[in-house]
Structures are given as structure tokens and as C-alpha cells.
Amino acid sequence: MRNLIDIVDLSTGEIEELIAVACDIIAHPDKYSEACHGKKLATLFFEPSTRTRLSFEAAMYELGGHVLSVSSSSSSSAAKGESVADTAKTVSCYADIIAMRHPKEGAALVAANNASIPVINAGDGGHCHPTQTLADLLTIHREKGRFDNLTVGFCGDLKFGRTVHSLINALSRYENIRFVLISPEELKVPSYIKRDVLKKQGFSYVQTTDFEKYMPELDVLYMTRVQRERFFNEEDYLRLKDSFILTPARLKRAKEDLSILHPLPRVNEISVAIDKDPRACYFKQVKNGKYMRMALILKLLGIEVK
Ligand code: CP
């Protein structure tokens, strides 16, 4: 039985296979409309979500399956102190596959170790968010047509940003990727990502607090929110939250074919005036997330559509 806890659980070939299936779903949605007939997805979300939970649910409905949902800790027996392990064993009696979000790093792995059905990590604390990475990769694939030879800027909260950690990991499989890591000093990429991914594999990267310096060189700009929920101290959050705001003026020196991504939700870090710019890809990214989750559900349930 396969789970998806971390993007490293998928080989490069498997990621490319998921992208191919997602592209086929986009081109031929009718072919897939009954693929999961009789199957049930349980979405267990112990932390807030709009896109991930609803896109998993939309994905399962569009595959002809059914959905069981826990949308908050307070509405489940987690509020009475039930463990993640017992929840996973219980839900395995009702569903065929689980997508789980939890505020604690490692919770999805605990669920996978105790469930008798596949478990998908839909975000575990500040650790990983592999299905967001699949959405990001499909977006880069559709916008740029390649993963090699790209200069990719990450901007905002690179410390707690689980989507950043997963995407750096995924892109590090490709050739000639240059990373520009733009963040306040306090929110730099964790040292284990630098040590185990960037330095170990000899990637070219710069860390900077200067938002504009590298703008003309970027092929992809991945903006992120400073996440209030990850701070212990409200004062630090208030001091850092508006460190980098992307405005039309700041894009003046950017490439004509820059792709601007953001996992969303957005707070202030991208001005709404950018939404009309053809380089803004973040709502396309939302849609791409649903297609990649459809492809992933099929893969983990072992369903092949001819
Ligand atoms: N990108 C993302 O994970 O969004 P949600 O928190 O709304 O699921």
C-alpha cells in the first residue's frame, strides 16, 4: 500500500506520470468521470483549509466517488483527546483513502503507520505539503514547459513555509536550477534544507533580504504568506508580516514571461492589482491542484484509466 507523506516518496518518473495523467484529465474529463465509482475519500482536516480540502473533495466527486469529511478538530473526537493513530484505524473502517491535514509535524506519518488504507499528507505543521507541490509542479510544467534551466525565487516565510520546503526538494531533481531565497533574516530557509538539499546536491542559491535585486533574473517567483499561526509571539508576526509586498511597480524590471505562483491564501503579500497581470498564475495553480489530486487518488487506489 502506498502513502504520500513527503514529496520524496515519489520518484521523478512517478511525478512525471502524475503530470501526464493530470494533463489527460484536463483534455478528456469524461473518461475519468466514473473511475472511482463506489470508492470513498475521507478528508480529515484538523487545521483550517479552503483549497486543499475542497480540491480533494472536488477531485473525488469528479472521479465519480464519494467523500466523508472532518473539517475541524472541534467537530471530531480529537476534541475529546482521541489520538491520530486511533482516528486513522477508525476511518480505515469507513473509507478507501484518507487525505489528512494536521498542525503537528509528523502526524500524517503516524496516521499512515496505523491506517489500513492509503494516507495522503495534506499538510503537517511547518513540515511538508506534497500535494501543493504537485499543484506547483503542474503549474510550472504548463507555464514554462520545462523544469530544467530555471531561476526560481522564493519570497516570504521560507522558515515555516512547508510548501517552500517541498517545492525546493522537488525542483532539486532537475538540472541547472538556481534558487533565489528572499526572506527576512528571521524567516530564512531551515538549515536542514540548505544542508541536505541545496549544499549536498551542489545547487546554486543566494539568500537575500533584497526583493528587487534579483527580480530581472527570475523565471518563476513563488510568493508566500507570513503565517500568523506559526508564530509564538504576536509582536514578531506584526513586525514581519508585511516584509515583502509584490506590487506592479516592483514587477517593472521582471521578465515578460515570469510566472508568479503563490500557494494561497494570500493576505497582503501580492497586491490585488497583480491579479490582472498575465504573469499571475496563482488561480491557475488552484485549478491545477485539483487535477493533480485526481491523478494522485487514482494512483494510490491503483486505478488505471485507459
Ligand atoms: N494552499 C493551501 O494549502 O491552501 P489551504 O490552506 O486553503 O488548503
Descriptive key words:
Rossmann fold; single chain; 2 domains; alpha/beta; 306 residues; binds phosphoric acid mono(formamide)ester
Kindly describe this structure:
- Helices cover 34% and strands 15% of the residues.
- The longest helix is centred in the C-terminal third of the chain and has 20 residues, at 282-301.
- Helix 2 crosses helix 9 and helix 3 (84-91) packs across helix 4 (107-114).
- The chain is globular, with a radius of gyration of 19 Å.
- By secondary structure, it is of the alpha/beta class.
- The strands form two sheets. A five-stranded parallel β-sheet has the order 7-6-5-8-9, covered by helices on one side. Strands 2-1-3-4 form a four-stranded parallel β-sheet.
Question: Can you lay out the helices and strands and say which pair or pack?
Answer:
Layout: H1 12-27, E1 40-45, H2 51-62, E2 66-70, H3 84-91, E3 97-102, H4 107-114, E4 119-124, H5 130-144, E5 150-155, H6 162-171, E6 177-182, H7 191-199, E7 204-208, E8 220-223, H8 234-240, E9 259-261, H9 282-301
Parallel strand pairs: 1-2, 1-3, 3-4, 5-6, 5-8, 6-7, 8-9
Helix pairs in contact: 1-5, 1-9, 2-9, 3-4, 5-6, 5-9
The structure holds phosphoric acid mono(formamide)ester (CP).
Give the N-terminus to C-terminus distance in angstroms: 22 Å
If strands are numbered along the chain, what order do they take across the biggest sheet?
Answer: 7-6-5-8-9
Total domain count: 2
Helix content: 25-40%
CATH topology of the largest domain: Rossmann fold
- Gross morphology: globular
Structural class: alpha/beta
